[in-house]
Amino acid sequence: MSNEELISQLTTIQPKLETDVAGEWPVVQVEAADWPKLAQAMRFKEDLWFDYLFCLTCVDWKAHLTMVYHLTSTRYRHHVVVKSRLNREKPEIQTVCDIWRTAEFHEREVYEMFGVNFLKHPDLRLLILPDDWVGFPLRKDYEDPVNMIKL
Amino acid sequence: MIEEIGTTEQGDLLINVGPQHPATHGVLHLVITMNGETIKKIEPHLGYIHRSIEKMCESLTYRQFIYTTSRMDYLSSHINNHGCALLVEKAMQIEVPPRAEAIRVLMDELTRIASHVLWWGAMAMDLGAMTPYFHAFRERELINDIMEETCGARLTMNYQVPGGVMFDLHPNFRQKVHAFIKQFKQKLPEYDELVTGNAIFKARTQGLGYLSLEDAVSYGVTGPSGRASGLSCDIRKIHPYSIYDKLTFEEALHSDGDTYARYLVRMVEMRESLSLIEQLIDNIPEGDFLAKTKAVLKPPKGEFYTRVETARGELGVYVVSEGATTPYRIKFRSPGFSNLSALDHMTRGQKIGDLVAIMGSLDLVIPDIDR
Q1: What pTM, to 2 d.p., does this model score?
Q2: ipTM (interface pTM)
Q3: What CATH number was assigned to the domain covering residues A3-90?
């Protein structure tokens, strides 16, 4: 499936998508509230079949946070990048670890590093950081006078 | 904070493995809930070797950040460097000279063999066989010597840089690689005699830690562990980078999905890597080994992603560039992190004595998981 066909398929499922096909892989921007429905369709619709979530991360844009999901299909080998803009004060998005199991660990990492709250996540706890850690280290305004060495 | 010692309300026993334990090959901490000898749940606690490489990279230039990646999966340091160099080259549209491409692939494959050989020895040692470990280190030493001559390092290579490789090959390189090929070809059948057909080894690995194809995809288990479940996930094949599309090799696939299948896949991979080295060693093109690049690298604004196949699976490098000399955000999708997430699923209902075999077959490198 070409990138244009892919985008048109995705916009049929979710008409409110912002799309961009300029880069290597097509990018779609989705509202956090619409993401669970889109994710479900992307994973299980026969001609999309995005069964492999190969990267899940977050970017702090200072004004807002952006979730970035890199998806591919092991059947058709097509790629898509899904982004979702979150409110920096109260970042919330529904988990996708019921659809892609790999998301469970990746979401826990984003939770502790960026403070994104994944709704309905079965086990949202700190993964890498110690249990009593305060703050979100990968946010741009994070300061830690003890552990951080400014280069 | 969860209770990490004693018994649960259901009467299950909690056991801690690590963070200092010989079988975890690093500082990995597992809290295991057990009913008798049966594993009910495994919960990994990470972060004992977390250095926040991603945060560090935000203040390092595009030439500097590559050095941190040698310290992630230290057994695939060449391949990690390769992935990052590819990313910068993709962003800046730098053409790599053919000689550099050949050297890179040679180094990658030698690294892969060294990593698999070490894993082979360690895996057998985990199961109580001491001898294979010494055989494995004899061959690994040859590769380390080759690396030391050309790259100046034995573990953290930092040899592949944007535009090519840092130095030209050492004059002894070809002859030493030939000697290695000769010895390794002779010793590989011995490896099989020692371990592959061993009845005790088979009994301790066959049918254990089953991972289905669907679960492998869902958990993002890649590399030899994913291929043992029948998942065609070799980035060298499905999204060829460098000159892999011009070389002939087979993707080692197996359908059993158990611990023994993961073992067999790595044994095949060593042979395939050896064949790749044989194809290249006498055909290294003459010419430059490093393209001319600007002193200060400033990739354009945008987002870039590269995928490479390390010895453990798919390494993804995701960079958000704002057009500055340092990356705005960098994310390493490390193979070990995703592979570890499947451990709980694979070991449920298995016996505690088999845990070491299952964990060994995933070939976890802890700095790669924690980053």
Answers
A1: 0.89
A2: 0.89
A3: 3.30.460.80
